[in-house]
Specification:
This protein has 12 helices and 2 strands. By secondary structure, it is mainly α.
Length: about 400
């Protein structure tokens, strides 16, 4: 089997154009890797995913219960009702153990899900990597990937961690939004939750557009880190020759130059994250809290509203505190969901890296390779194929 130079060059050009971003291409790539992470509906990975989902539901219900119980405790304190105070504090003590178990089961499920995802993806990649002479070809014949060790270890781990974090950071806020919106609609009307959800959509569109460079920066960071590891590994491998020819100063300049590029890029990433962090905090946290205060205050400040005309001061305080806390939790859930877009952007970068490794391994296992050569006319790209190794 063989691959022509034009075809190889065209594939490379398409890869250069397909920069990582949260778009349809990312969804296609992620779906491809997801079939590796969760191979069937009866797999243990899907079981742990369901466990995490169940614990997230239980965690949200526990939060709602604690909010209501805490409101009753504070009302008992304000009204100086000792019996009610002792009753609700005793209820809180009684549920401490179940709530603690729910929290730990959630952490255990997320950790085990991440580990199982990593095992699945690592087994799949090494099955392709150690097939025939692919491990030799990827370093000596094909030069599309210069740091395969970085991809097989660190990038795979970060990809699985990013998937797990995104699952938790998206599903929990979405669940909170639905539960708190339903409860708030029954107490203060649907205008407040509707306003918060509209703010979520507008804010999410704005921040997603502003975060677009992050996926490209993530890919570049992993490439430079991999290059830095590569030059150090090369020095270790060829240390005898370097010592024989007295090339330590030359190698020091090479390693130092690569490390300097890593440092410069990391500072660029820090500057971008600093500016985006300021915008994230304002849009997803503080301004979302302002919107929440506005929504919860409207029914109480509306003098035409007769809902609390016959209510006592303590009842109004309890209703306001409960509604305010729920709407504040709703605002925080909206903020977390908006900030989850940052993790989604990073995930698109790791996805692009892992999919690139899958593509190269697939090509090599089918006798296709791409290699850049320098000739008299400048740099050229040669594509060809050899027989697959036994």
């Amino acid at each position: 089997a063989g691959g022509g130079a034009a075809g190889a060059g065209g594939d490379k050009a398409r890869r250069r154009k397909a920069r990582p971003a949260v778009n349809a291409l990312f969804a296609k790539r992620f779906a491809r890797l997801l079939r590796i992470l969760v191979p069937s509906v009866f797999s243990a990975e899907l079981g742990y995913t369901a466990l995490v989902a169940a614990m997230l539901v239980a965690r949200t219900l526990c939060d709602v219960w604690m909010l209501n119980n805490g409101t009753k405790i504070e009302r008992a304190i304000i009204t100086r009702d000792r019996d009610a105070y002792a009753h609700y504090v005793a209820r809180f003590v009684a549920v401490m153990l179940p709530i603690s178990v729910v929290n730990q089961l959630l952490k255990f499920g997320l950790q085990e899900m991440k580990l199982r995802f990593r095992v699945r993806l690592t087994d799949y990649l090494y099955a392709q990597y150690m097939r025939g002479y692919t491990y030799y070809k990827i370093s000596n014949i094909d030069n599309r990937i210069a740091n395969v060790d970085q991809l097989l270890t660190q990038d795979v781990e970060k990809f699985c961690e990013s998937v797990t974090d995104l699952y938790s950071n998206v599903s929990k806020p979405i669940l909170d939004i639905f539960i708190y919106a339903a409860r708030l609609t029954s107490s203060i009307g649907g205008q407040g939750p509707a306003t918060m959800l509209a703010y979520l959509v507008a804010n999410g569109v704005l921040l997603t557009a502003l975060r677009r460079p992050l996926s490209r920066l993530t890919v570049k960071e992993q490439q430079l880190e991999g290059e830095f590891r590569f030059v150090n590994a090369r020095l270790i491998t060829n240390s005898e020759e370097v010592a024989f020819y007295g090339g330590n100063n030359k190698e020091r300049r090479v390693v130092g130059g690569v490390f300097e590029r890593v440092v410069q890029h990391l500072r660029s990433v820090q500057a971008f994250r600093f500016s985006m962090g300021v915008v994230d905090n304002i849009c997803a946290k503080y301004f979302a809290t302002v919107v929440g205060y506005h929504c919860v205050s409207r029914p109480f400040l509306d003098l035409a509203n007769t809902q609390w005309d016959d209510a006592s001061h303590s009842q109004i305080m309890e209703d306001y505190y409960r509604s305010g806390r729920m709407l504040l939790n709703l605002a925080m859930a909206v903020g977390r969901l908006v900030l989850a877009g940052r993790e989604l952007t990073r995930l698109s970068g790791f996805t692009a890296r892992v999919v690139e490794l899958c593509d190269v391994l697939h090509d090599l296992n089918h006798g296709k390779y791409v290699r850049t050569m320098v000739n008299d006319g400048g740099a050229g790209r040669d594509g060809g194929g050899g027989g697959g190794g036994g």
